[in-house]
Amino acid sequence: MKLLGAEILRRLGAGESIASLCAAAGITRAEFEAWWRTETRRRLPVTDGTSSANLREKVEIIRDGRGIPHIMAGNDEDLFYGFGLAMAQDRLFQLDYLRRRAWGRLCEILGAEAMPLDLTARTMDLGTIAQAEWAAAAAETRRLLEAFSAGVNRVIEGSAERPPIEFDLLDYRPQPWRPVDCLAIEGEFRWYLTGRLPVFAVPEMVRRTLGEGSLYQAFLQGEADDECILPAGSYPSTRVGVEVLANAGGDPTPCQGSNNWVIAGARTTTGMPLLASDPHIAFGAVSCWYEVHLCGGSFSVAGMSYCGMPAVMFGRNERVAWGCTNNICAQRDLYQEKTDPAHPGCFFYDGRWEPAGHREETIEVKGVGPVTKVIRSSSHGPIIDELLPEPTRTGEPVSVRWLGSEPCRWLEALLAIDRVRSAEELREATRPWHVPTFSLVFCDGDGHIGYQSVGRIPIRKHPNRGYRPGWDPEHDWQGLIPFEGMPRLADPARGYAITANNRPAADDFPYPLAGVWSSGYRARRIRQMIEANERTSFDDLGKMQLDVLSLRAVECVPHLLAVLEPDTASLAAVEELRRWNCRMERDSAAPAIFDVFFGHWCQQVANARFSGEASSLVAAAGGGLAATLLRDDQAGWFAPGRREAAVREAFAAALETLSRRLGPSLDRWQWGELHRMQMKHFLSGRGDLGELLDQPSVGVHGDMLTVCNTGGDVDWQARLGAGYRMIVDMSASPAAMWAVDAGSESGQPASPHYADQISDWLNGRYHRVSLDRTEVESGAQARLMLMPAQQA
Question: What is the strand order of the sheet 468-469 is part of?
């Protein structure tokens, strides 16, 4: 070779094409691919054998046929050392990527392309929040994080010469891991789940254009919004108090859908509870979830952790199982701040001008140098103008108050949940948890089931989906809904609990839930399937998770056909819709016709009142309005007589799009040819790295509103959805759960476990994860024994 391997990797990581590098190195593409396979394989971790470590007792990491680590230890600290070591063996680059994302340091390795992510982390000051979280952490949490970090550092130190390939592609090495890094990752994940600024910014933009009247209210209307988690009569009619909330900080320098359900034994074929959970998040070549079984000390638990957060977030232990979804209740508010040239550097609040806080953040940008950003803040929180979509900016500063800026004790609660022995203990273990708001369903070995909305929700005097007047104290938070006042169910009379990012309760709930939920269709469909059978079997759970009936289509297609009836130009497509069973199956043309039409229809609806980028934002957020307008236009959104013409134009545009993308023949318009799962690596967009690191794109069933959730995008690609699925039968003996993760266990591209679960995921197959030592031993494929240094 004319080039050294290290130089090839650096140039690949900088975006140079494989063809160019082959020419420079004087090798063929086949020779390059053989070199790449060798280069990635030699970086795989050692998962078999015996080694010494700074431990009190021995630790065994037994890996099964899918590479999932079953970590056995004699005490909690040694167990979490093994946890950190196993996760770092599989996901070291992902750990460092997520750490840098949390601290706002991605630009150091990626250059200016990462500025939006770094600016978000620096604006929200996620690093300072993590440090405050560490200062407030319980002693046990500190000990376990320190042990986990020591395990990560063992891998960092041991792989310095042959780290995961991404480090050489980007030409850097990871710094030592600190316990606070785990809390920084936790904080960034909290922001991902609860920040979501367009949820408030886009409605504000619509309100400013349309006013407060019927058009604005029509835009805010969600689909199937009456589908509630709590049935009528299952909650008290009066408040139980208010939790005191600290004042929002000024200058802080001194200091992101899912399904789950549980069914009681009286409604199951086993006589014991059944539970299912499938969190929805962006698909990727490397999963954000890390499946693990922890056995030792006070832990005997299996399930999914979030990479970098050392606790099982959802799964089961010997006695209790639980699953979670995002509650979608607002834990932040956006405030329009008032300024005046006569009072520079101040914001008006409660009749007086208050000095703005400000701090400087220096972001090191690879290939550019340091870039300094000044972050201003009001009494509510940081000014976020640069984080907002351009059309939503008003010219006056906008601040955000976010409950997640305070210590939230999420990890502490998860560690407690992992060890509970009953449904009631689980509910109590969630008490410290403040952010994010999740909907947990759970069950125990005594047959109890329940639902708990965890976290806290700020109490507001005035409902508002847009910007609040920052100068008016009437719009400050009044406190928090106390733990005892959060929505919950214990052994509900109907024998089940379902959550799918839908409304927790009707408007007569005693506290304002400040929801930004948008659709109850998935929850409604799950309820329909449960109620269709007197008793549900364990096998039914997997079928339910794979259900692709679109209730949006059930609702909308008859109204669409009524408008299209006289249209003979598109007769074949109309007939395809008329024969359709409304299931989003990948080998059918009707789902493609309907979903592409609905995308164009949303854009037509938006274009009636908006233009340019603002129109695109409204189209993306206006599904509920678009569905309603297919039926009628009571609000007068369109000019008289215009609605029907707009429907036909959207349908014609959909057929033209399908012809252009898939060819003129309707026989080629299968949904799976358009709706393809995108499993891209973090570095996919850099030169040809996607060819080397991405998993293959595959056509998938479902869409964003089916229980089998495969998301949607402006181009109908499947970029997020239920990549992980879990089902639990509490009658199983020994205790076990069944799961599948499309992203698989390893983040190392040469590992046999980099993409070995995608086929199972596509075909509805699950693997069993047992909590029984004998069963784990029988399925062992690799065993790493870590011995205390004095015994080695």
Answer: 398-402, 332-336, 468-469
Q: Is 377 helix (H, G, I), strand (E, B) or coil?
A: strand
DSSP string over 609-660:
T--HHHHHHHHHH-HHHHHHHHH--TT--SPTTHHHHHHHHHHHHHHHHHHH
Cα(52)–Cα(75) distance, rounded to whole angstroms? Answer: 17
d(Cα 399, Cα 406) in Å, to the nearest integer? 16
Tokens (6 digits) for 699: 């056509």
Strand residues in 396-475 grouped as ranges (E): 398-402, 438-444, 449-454, 468-469
What are the phi and psi torsion angles at 388 (to 5°)?
Answer: -90, 150
pLDDT at 568: 63
Q: What is the model's pTM?
A: 0.96
Residues 6+ away with beta carbon under 8 Å from 392: 198, 201, 202, 204, 205, 617
Containing 194, the helix (H) or strand (E) segment is helix 179-194
Q: Are strands 346-349 and 352-355 parallel, antiparallel or unpaired?
A: antiparallel
What pLDDT does 207 receive?
A: 95
Torsions phi, psi of 331, nearest 5?
Answer: -115, 20
Using alpha carbons, list the distances in angstroms from residue 54 to 153, 786, 792.
12, 9, 10
DSSP category for residue 175: P
Q: How far is CA 326 from the centre of its chain?
A: 8
Cα separation, 712 vs 492, whole angstroms: 34
Name the token pair of 301.
């638990």
pLDDT of residue 251: 33
Q: What is the pLDDT of residue 55?
A: 97
Amino acid 2: pLDDT: 65
Half-sphere exposure of 292 (CA within 13 A, CB side): 33
Which residues lie closer than 8 Å to 403 by C-beta, 6 or more apart?
A: 194, 331, 332, 434, 435, 456, 458, 480
- What does the pLDDT read at residue 516? 85
Place of tokens 């609605």: 643
If 0-12 CB within 10 Å is exposed, 13-18 middle and 19+ buried, where does residue 737 land?
A: buried
Q: What are phi and psi of 457, to 5 degrees?
A: -125, 125
Q: What is the mean pLDDT of each run of 10 residues along the chain (792 residues)?
A: 84 97 95 97 97 96 98 98 98 98 98 98 98 97 98 97 97 98 98 95 95 93 92 92 58 56 98 97 95 98 98 98 94 97 97 97 97 98 97 95 95 98 98 96 98 97 94 97 97 98 94 88 98 97 98 97 80 95 98 97 97 95 95 95 95 96 95 96 96 96 95 88 96 97 97 97 97 96 94 58
- Cα torsion 95, 101, 105, 108 to 10°: value is 70
Tokens of 576: 């395809």
Going through 54-202 in order, the beta strands assigned E by DSSP cover: 59-63, 69-73
Beta bridge partners of 521: none
Q: Please say whether the beta carbons of 116 and 125 come within 8 A.
A: no
- Sequence-distant (6+) residues with CB within 8 A of 269 are 535, 536, 537, 538
DSSP state of 713: -
